[in-house]
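Appendix B. Extra example for self-study. Work through it before the problem class; the solution is given directly after the inputs so you can check yourself.
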Amino acid sequence: MSGAEASDWRDEVFAALRAGDIRQVGYVPDAGHARLIDLCHADPAIRAVPLTSEEEGIALAAGAWLGGQRAALLMQSSGVGNCINMLSLTKNCRFPLVILVTMRGEWAEFNPWQVAMGTKTQAALELMDVLVYRAARADEAAETVAAALDIAFNGSLAAAVLFSQRLIGAKRWVK
Amino acid sequence: MTAGSNQTRLDRRAAMRILLAERGELLLVTGLGSTTYDAAAVGDDPRNFYLWGAMGGAAMIGLGLAIARPDRPVLVVTGDGEMLMGLGALATIGLQRPPNLALAVFDNGHYGETGMQPSHTLATASLHGIARACGIEAAEDIGDEAALAGFARRLNSRSETLFARVAIAVDDPPRVLPPRDGVLLKDRFRQATGMARES
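Solution. Structure tokens for the complete assembly:
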């Protein structure tokens, strides 16, 4: 992360998670979330839980809430497709839920296999009544996450923030 | 030993009674289908979180709950079919290993809700073997009531993650149906366990 300053948008997103009292973070590894994942693991106040598949995180977050803790999930757009049936748990019980999604397949994508799910990610979330917010610029990422946390935990609702592929940046795909 | 062997098998209702006989502060999550009915048959309790869907999610709900409530023992009781759908959860739990989490899988080798079709455990898959291979060292294969009672006694010790594959007789006892309103189940669970309702 050469050149990364304190104002890196991922640091700001992490600060928003901390301010929102997020105590469990379930994730499937993704390059776009790598810094956020590292920050979660480094913070003793947060239990970072690597998942084998994204739908595990939907159930993890429900269990956390039953136990009085707030959870957030980190995943890539393709992983949203793995969550559909498990989101019936969230919807039926009105569990609060916040998902941060790094987008693939929508902007200068190298791999056409990412496009099929990436172009349907928002629709898939909305199909299960998850509120969807998009962050396309670095200066709006953290405030969008904060807004999603507010609406989810104030209203027992499910909300997702999609970080656009343009925001994540082309350099992320360069070795 | 898989479900297709000559191992003795427990009555599912008796098995649930043994697990909950001295539940104390225990928090219970049940998988959709028969284990939910088994828990209701023992007696409805607001500290039971029954699943009526979300197949494959029971173990992970238990993990999130166990991490959030290290002061309470958490028990997940689910069936072989439900566990098979979420096998990845065993790898995830094996990595976390909260000492207050226990999983008991009632394995009758069949999908009871859908017409008793054989499951993968009937001939080949070993759930306790998979759990152990995922890093859950205290993974047992239980086929009699004494061993199950021993497992139940360890629930309150909160000393390590426990897993029991429980050999269950192929049976379809009368259904005892608990509430199925998800919001009610969630809210009463939180109220009964000291979590202030926030919304």
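Self-check: The longest strand of chain B covers residues 101-107. If your reasoning did not lead you there, revisit section 3.
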